[in-house]
Write a structure and sequence with these properties.
This protein is of the alpha/beta class. It has helices at about 15-20, 95-110, 135-140, 150-175, 215-220, 245-260, 275-280, 335-345, 385-400; strands at about 1-5, 25-30, 50, 75, 85-90, 120-125, 180-185, 225, 290-295, 295-300, 305-310, 365-370, 435-440.
């Protein structure tokens, strides 16, 4: 079994797992497209899906918390290969992480009697906003000393995540599957200490800023891997550069070596096979990481150096572990740091008033992340040669980069067009759908 947890988007990697002989299950958040059925999980390599298509839903009512509309479903194929979808309104009121965990455990127990190996992408909502947990979780999981409503809510939400992970690993051990499992725990971005999702109670201190920015607080996240294939590395840390797209070639590299199976890539991929670092304690094979390449807004890391050109995000600064401003920071230029933090947390006219360096959109920043992971000191002026080298590489990458998709709103996509339920709206006639709204659900 290979179990990927949290919301580290896996995309089309399931197709390659299927070529290696795996049955693929996705339990939890998808958020990888749904304008046509071909973009949904069961049409992109997964045999089974139980969860939600969009980015965030209410933990108990299961509607999208920003746009409304029900978004909780089960997709699968019947014995004849026909696609089936069940809209799960009978689960209303159920705590979403528990529903997802119970279904994942059911799959693990059912898998015990199957010949095929299993790949499960288990993507819990915790600790994404909205910050919700069952009654009693705050008193159960919030340590003494945690202050503030949002931080206490986060503690309860995090406790729900830990509870789910314990129950999942217990199920793997009870079925005897743990000793044949690779468990990867990842996240897709840093927390949101300020801004539209600041009520989630997050803090990325001592990293700078957070979600929706290109500072390290937004793009650097911790991860861990467990299971028999890394037992010899227990307790060790790997600090080499690693991108989320590296997981597919890294995991499949190990599987191919252990099973003798193989597959041929359909096209070039961005991921790097970092199996030597992950499974043998070696060094990273990744030498660069492109984070942004819009006109006038570019971020590229090459080895230990990170270059930011233009606006790195709509907020800045550092919040400590209690979510309070941390003012003992040496900036690259004099500034009223405390005043800026007050703006960033909504104390000076609202979030919209706070854009970093609004008078200098073309500003160039260079950080040495090896000695300064908090990005406190801009060394661009001291190393123009490094700046020039990284900018030249950005120009090379610009030639091959794909244009961004149209991000305008499409009226036909709205859930109100389909009875208050989020579903695909393009090419919907090309696939035979048994589309039922259930009061009781049985597979």
């Amino acid at each position: 079994a290979v179990v990927s947890t949290q919301s580290g988007h896996y995309g089309r990697g399931a197709n390659y797992m299927k070529e290696l002989g795996y049955e693929n299950y996705l339990v939890g958040k998808w958020h990888q497209g749904m304008n046509s059925w071909e973009e949904t999980p069961v049409f992109r390599g997964f045999d089974y899906f139980y969860g939600y298509y969009g980015g965030q839903i209410h933990y108990f009512a299961h509607y999208h918390t920003k746009f409304g509309g029900h978004d909780f479903r089960r997709d699968y194929r019947d014995e004849q290969g026909n696609f089936k979808q069940e809209i799960l309104k009978n689960e209303l009121g159920g705590y979403l992480p528990k529903l997802l965990t119970d279904d994942a455990i059911r799959i693990i127990k059912d898998q015990k009697n199957k010949d095929k190996p299993m790949f499960m992408y288990f993507s819990l909502p915790n600790v994404h906003s909205p910050n919700q947990s069952p009654k009693g979780y705050i008193s159960k999981y919030c340590p003494d000393g945690i202050e503030g409503y949002d931080r206490k809510q986060l503690a309860g939400n995090l406790g729900g995540l830990e509870e789910s992970m314990k129950n999942l690993t217990d199920a793997l051990k009870e079925t005897g599957e743990w000793d044949n499992t690779i468990l990867v725990f990842i996240s897709d971005n840093g927390g949101a200490p300020v801004g539209l999702m600041s009520y989630a109670g997050h803090s990325n201190y001592p990293l700078r800023a957070g979600k929706t920015t290109l500072f390290e607080g937004g793009v650097r996240t911790p991860a861990f891997i467990a299971g028999p294939y890394v037992r010899h590395l227990a307790g060790s840390e790997a600090n080499g550069m690693f991108h989320v797209s590296d997981w597919m070639p890294t995991l499949t590299s190990l599987i191919k070596k252990k099973t003798g199976r193989t597959f041929r890539l359909k096209n070039e991929i961005d991921g790097v096979d970092n199996s030597e670092m992950v499974f043998n304690g070696g060094t990273t094979k990744r030498k660069e990481m492109l984070l942004q390449i819009n006109k006038g807004n570019e971020v590229l890391r090459m080895d230990k150096y990170k270059l930011i050109v233009g606006n790195a995000g709509e907020y800045d600064g550092y919040l400590n572990h209690q979510g309070r401003p941390e003012i003992k920071i040496q900036y690259d230029e004099p500034m009223d740091f405390l005043g800026k933090v007050k703006c960033s947390i909504g104390l000076c006219g609202g979030f919209g008033d706070y854009i970093i360096d609004p008078t200098d959109g073309a500003k160039v920043r260079l950080f040495d992340l090896e000695v300064d992971p908090s990005e406190t000191y801009n060394i661009a002026g001291k190393h123009p040669d490094i700046v020039a080298r990284i900018r030249a590489r950005i120009d090379e990458l610009r030639v091959i980069v794909r244009k961004p998709q149209d991000n305008s709103q499409i009226p036909e996509a709205h859930h109100k067009k389909s009875g208050g339920i989020w579903k695909p709206w393009r090419n919907t006639q090309s696939i035979n759908i048994d589309y039922n709204i259930l009061t009781k659900t049985e597979l």
